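STRUCTURE:
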């Protein structure tokens, strides 16, 4: 018996060779992502080119406005008020409360000097200005900054209750200003109000922290109810060294969404730096910050990257396209009976599962590497900005889930065409439903999260949800110049990546277990397999399917054995004796083996094999003869594990057919009725694979392969290395016989091995089988009486599911051949003379054929005492009549078969 490693090695080598022959198809599959990404890149190029042309036609390059930086000013009703150095709360009624700034530092004189220069005074003689003069003064707004710098609502004259302010040490009553906007989209003239900037000293940064925290705690969801505009700690700065800590309000949210928001920090930094310089060298020295803004670019109405919206759909299709390939490959092996053929030659389930799974995992991983690599190289934010490790964990979990789902579904399908159609419907249906329906549920915050989880139990929707989340994170990161999703984002309330990862991991494990379970149970419905509750059994024998028990739907009266045939009864007695003494020289012992197919559509049950009892010694070739439908193939199917017996049992090499079939497989060879080969493997490669399954290796393996190829005449002329798909029918049949003989199996089953062979090939094959039966037991079914007589040591004529007779060819001809066949040819008109001659030899002779001058008679053996009498009579007759030809023959095996089968 080959070890697990030898089995895995054999299958792995075969798979490598097989898929090497399909290299072009595999490359097309693996390189498909590259093709799609190139296509998307071309589309993106022309979209960008179209946007650029449109922008040029509308006024060439859209240059972003150069906005002067603003301070974030608290709303009038929230500005800090107190009874000490802060203003009286009554200012809120008139909207005249100042915007307060807190100052502290180790060098109090320097700190207070800096505070006094924070807000340069605007000349009262002027009432308007333009952006170029705004940079020398401090302006602020009560509106929040948006998530981009494309526009600033603080300069928007169409805002409702928000405003633009000039921050001054003091404000005149009803003072206001105007300026010309740098952005024609906002409006030409914008009104500017005045707000007093009040700087207040605090003894320490701790005092500032307490005051800011108290004002924040008393606030509501719109901000602090006693809000300080900013605070500065000048620390231990001096004339040669400037250090400062800045407090600013970072608690605001844009649009009520929990998303990244730009803050008004640049003006606070410039304001304190400029005040420090002026406190040292005077007001004539300035360090101005002219503007902040986006990079100039071409825009089409501010539209985002169009690919970001179709990425989940296209990527779902791209990843799912592996699924039909995997699923149809598994069903193909099932439909062509390749897997059961491998199993009958010793391949265990564990090795099959491991190598098949490993191969599909390698293909899927290479596919995903190219998918990720090409996407990264063309610069998609989806790949570049999201965490690489998060992406790869997501991809690896899903491709494992996809493979396990293909194994699971393959248990329910047995036709490749149906499987392929259903698979592609699932692929494209998943993408379309995901984009058109499921995405709406994801984006709807009011939609039930529980229902989403239920929908994500379908793996395709889990894939779509994960890709959609990655696309959204990548798009936002690209817009805001930040990073995309990372491990720290998985627990975000609005992120579904962690959820789908957990679902996919659990489903992967469940699908693997369910696949193994269904493989055992569903296969057992047709063959010797496992009970649906096998995992609850403690005894291995009890764990097997109830195939060892008769079907309760079949009445005992339907199965019976005729015991009036001496040879059949003698065989039964011999089997009973062998079962009692356990004789190892008989590798096959069948005891009352029965197969009944249940009736369907009102038809009665069909008895295919009826109480078959047989003992086969080593070194014997047993031939089963019988008409079509007699049950020969059903018997072979039971012995090879393809179907389970309805009742009875059999012992093969001392192993129970019902409970130890996996061990039996390692010691048997099978030549099935229909050839089962891989079209893209050569004859030599077939034999190498099955030889390795039979534990052959090294020089012994190659020697046995060459010997068998020579024996079946598949060696010369390069035929051995020719693909099996290009073999003729006879060559395929000879290869099937060679496969059954490789590895020196102790038991060989051959179901009509010479079908379709020419006479020369048939004679050659008979010699191979006669040579092979030494030290082996061979069961052979055939319709050729000549074949059975030539190579079989014993023959059983099988009719309606049971043996009618058993014995060697000569015994059967002697037992059932009751006549001689006498043939004579003379000139026409002498028929009566011939009939008189025959009647003299055998009074009860019967004419069975007459054409022109040729007649054929059956002579009862009891009336022909000696054959020499016939020769003497013909010799005397030649003196009277001209005899052209004559002959006498014993009954042929074919005539015996016709006579027995016709009873």
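SEQUENCE:
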């Amino acid at each position: 018996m080959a070890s697990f490693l030898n089995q895995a090695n054999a299958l792995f080598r075969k798979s490598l060779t097989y898929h090497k022959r399909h290299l072009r198809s595999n490359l097309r599959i693996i390189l498909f992502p590259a093709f799609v990404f190139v296509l998307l890149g071309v589309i993106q190029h022309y979209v960008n080119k179209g946007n650029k042309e449109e922008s040029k036609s509308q006024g060439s390059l859209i240059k972003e406005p150069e906005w002067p930086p603003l301070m974030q000013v608290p709303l009038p009703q929230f500005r800090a008020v107190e009874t000490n150095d802060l203003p009286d709360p009554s200012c809120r009624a008139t909207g005249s409360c100042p915007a307060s700034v807190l100052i502290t530092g180790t060098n109090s004189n320097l700190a207070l000097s800096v505070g006094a220069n924070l807000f340069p005074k605007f000349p009262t003689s002027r009432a308007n200005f333009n952006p170029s003069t705004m940079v020398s003064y401090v302006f602020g707004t009560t509106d929040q900054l948006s998530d981009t710098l494309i526009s600033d609502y603080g300069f928007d004259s169409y805002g409702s209750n928000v405003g633009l302010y000039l921050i001054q040490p003091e404000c005149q009553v009803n003072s206001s200003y105007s300026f010309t906007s740098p952005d024609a989209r906002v409006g030409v003239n914008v009104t500017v109000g005045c707000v007093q900037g009040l700087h207040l000293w605090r003894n320490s940064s701790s005092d500032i922290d307490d005051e800011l925290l108290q004002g924040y705690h008393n606030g509501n969801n719109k901000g602090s109810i006693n809000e300080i505009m900013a605070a500065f700690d000048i620390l231990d700065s001096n004339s040669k060294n400037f250090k400062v800590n800045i407090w600013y309000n970072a608690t605001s949210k844009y649009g009520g969404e929990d998303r990244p928001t730009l803050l008004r920090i640049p003006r606070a930094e410039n304001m304190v730096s400029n005040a420090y310089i002026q406190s040292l060298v005077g007001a004539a020295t300035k360090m101005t910050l002219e503007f902040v803004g986006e990079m100039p670019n071409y825009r089409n109405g501010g539209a985002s990257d169009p690919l970001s919206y179709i990425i989940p759909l296209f990527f779902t299709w791209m990843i799912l396209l592996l699924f039909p390939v995997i699923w149809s490959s598994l069903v193909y092996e099932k439909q062509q009976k390749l897997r059961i053929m491998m199993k009958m030659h010793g391949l265990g389930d564990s090795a099959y599962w491991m190598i098949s799974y490993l191969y599909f995992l390698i293909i899927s991983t290479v596919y995903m590497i190219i998918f990720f690599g090409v996407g990264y190289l063309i610069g998609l934010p989806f790949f570049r900005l999201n965490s690489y490790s998060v992406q790869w964990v997501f991809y690896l979990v899903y491709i494992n889930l996809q493979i396990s789902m293909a194994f699971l579904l393959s248990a329910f399908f047995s036709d490749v065409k149906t499987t392929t159609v259903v698979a592609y419907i699932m692929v494209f249906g998943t993408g379309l439903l995901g984009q058109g329906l499921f995405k709406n549920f994801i984006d709807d915050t009011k939609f039930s999260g529980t229902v989403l989880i239920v929908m994500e139990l379908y793996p395709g929707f889990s894939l779509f949800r994960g890709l959609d989340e990655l696309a959204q994170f990548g798009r936002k990161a690209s817009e805001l110049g930040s990073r995309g999703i990372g491990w720290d984002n998985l627990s975000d309330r609005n992120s579904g990546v962690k959820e789908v990862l957990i679902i996919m991991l659990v489903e992967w494990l469940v699908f693997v277990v369910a696949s193994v379970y269904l493989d055992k149970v569903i296969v057992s419905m047709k063959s010797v397999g496992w009970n649906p509750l096998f995992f609850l059994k403690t005894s291995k024998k009890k764990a097997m399917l109830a195939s060892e028990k008769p079907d309760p739907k079949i009445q005992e009266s339907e199965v019976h054995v005729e015991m009036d045939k001496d040879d059949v009864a003698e065989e039964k007695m011999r089997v009973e004796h062998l079962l009692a003494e356990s004789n190892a020289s008989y590798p096959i012992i069948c005891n009352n083996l029965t197969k009944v197919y249940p009736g369907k559509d009102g038809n009665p049950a069909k008895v295919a094999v009826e109480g078959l009892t047989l003992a086969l010694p080593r070194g014997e070739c047993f031939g089963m003869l019988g008409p079509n439908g007699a049950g020969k193939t059903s018997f072979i199917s039971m012995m090879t594990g393809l179907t389970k017996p309805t009742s009875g049992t059999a012992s093969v090499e001392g192993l129970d057919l019902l409970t130890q079939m996996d061990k039996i497989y390692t010691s048997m060879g099978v030549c099935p009725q229909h050839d089962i080969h891989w079209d893209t493997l050569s004859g030599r490669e077939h034999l190498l694979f099955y030889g390795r399954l039979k534990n052959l290796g090294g020089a012994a393996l190659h020697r046995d392969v060459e010997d068998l190829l020579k024996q079946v005449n598949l060696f010369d002329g390069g035929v051995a290395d020719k693909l099996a798909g290009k073999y003729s029918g006879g060559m395929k049949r000879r290869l099937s016989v060679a496969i059954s003989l490789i590895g020196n199996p102790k038991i060989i089953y051959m179901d009509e091995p010479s079908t379709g062979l020419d006479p020369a090939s048939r004679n050659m094959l008979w010699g191979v089988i006669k040579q092979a039966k030494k030290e082996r037991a061979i069961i052979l079914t055939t319709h050729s009486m000549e074949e059975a007589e030539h190579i079989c040591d014993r023959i059983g004529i099988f009719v309606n599911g049971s043996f009618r007779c058993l014995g060697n060819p000569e015994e059967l001809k002697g037992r059932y051949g009751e006549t001689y066949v006498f043939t004579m040819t003379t000139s026409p008109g002498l028929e009566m003379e011939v009939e008189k001659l025959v009647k003299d030899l055998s009074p009860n002779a019967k004419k069975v054929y007459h054409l022109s001058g040729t007649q054929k008679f059956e002579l009862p053996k009891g009336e022909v005492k000696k054959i020499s009498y016939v020769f003497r009579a013909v010799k005397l007759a030649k003196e009277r009549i001209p005899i052209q030809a004559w002959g006498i023959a014993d009954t042929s095996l074919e005539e015996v078969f016709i006579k027995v089968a016709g009873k």
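REMARK: The mean pLDDT is 81.
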